[in-house]
Amino acid sequence: MILTAVDLEARGLARQLGLASVPGAAWPHFRSGPVEVACVGLRASALADRAPKLNAATLVVSAGACGALAPELAEGTLVVPEAVVTEDGRRMATATLPGVEARGTLLTVARVVTSGADKARLFIESGAIACDMESAVILDWAHTRGVAAAVVRGVSDTAEHGVPADLAASVGEDGRVRTISAVRAALSRRGALRDALALRRGTNAALAAVAGALARLARAR
To answer: Which of 67, 62, 70 is CA-nearest to residue 43?
Structure first.
């Protein structure tokens, strides 16, 4: 079971993994054989409501894009952490994935990190190499059900750059990108279109890396 925050992540991974849309699905939900991809919203806020529509799984993977905290991580770098940490200090180990090497920790935060300065602070405070907003929630959900869980993410934005608040606001809590809001944000300030194109490029690179790792994992299992 592969869970993403944003509909574009779910659709992109499903396309690259060759999954078909689940008939009648009211949200991005894809499946082929034992592999399933579903969008569960920002901070995995829709997971509880959408979980009844998901098949039982032996492994849950939090997948999609993440932001780099470690300066050496470039766009498209694969991030498969050994553990996930929260801002209040909780630490959760991730499951070992065959054929995919794990290293470092990933920090789950409650809000979008909008600047390089904020990323530098988080890197120093947590020691994590990257951050997202969903993995701790997804791991908690899986562990309470006795299911192994891991994280496979790719860097969409480097440590020097955050995600601009106006672009982040174009994604709803349910994970759907509001096209009109995204266009308005891209045209509303100087440099916004450049930021939007850079984020799109980074996200595409991140999803390509994640899809490759997930394909290897599916073959290994």
So the answer is: 62
Mean pLDDT for the chain? 92
Does the residue 35 lie in any domain? yes
Contact (Cβ atoms closer than 8 angstroms) between residue 182 and residue 170: yes
pLDDT in tens, 145-166: 999 999 999 999 999 998 887 7
Cα–Cα distance, 149 to 90 (Å, whole number): 16
Considering the domain boundaries, does residue 177 fall inside one? no
- CATH number of residue 89's parent domain: 3.40.50.1580
Rounded distance between C-alpha atoms, residue 146 and residue 37, angstroms? 20
**Predicted pLDDT of residue 140:** 97
N- to C-terminal Cα separation, the chain: 13
Number of domains in the chain: 1
Q: Is there a domain that residue 174 lies in?
A: no
Instruction: Answer whether residue 77 is part of any domain.
Output: yes
Residue 221 has pLDDT above 70, yes or no: no
Going by C-beta distance under 8 Å and a sequence separation of 6 or more, which residues neighbour residue 45? 173, 174
Q: Is the pLDDT of residue 184 over 80?
A: no
Q: Say how many CA atoms lie within 13 Å of 202 toward its Cβ.
A: 24
Q: Can you give the residue range of the structural domain that contains 207?
A: 2-160+202-220
Tens-digit pLDDT profile for residues 68-97 = 999 999 999 999 999 999 999 999 999 999
Strands 105-108 and 91-93: unpaired
- What integer is the mean pLDDT of 54-72? 97
Q: Rounded CA gap, 98 and 120, in Å?
A: 32
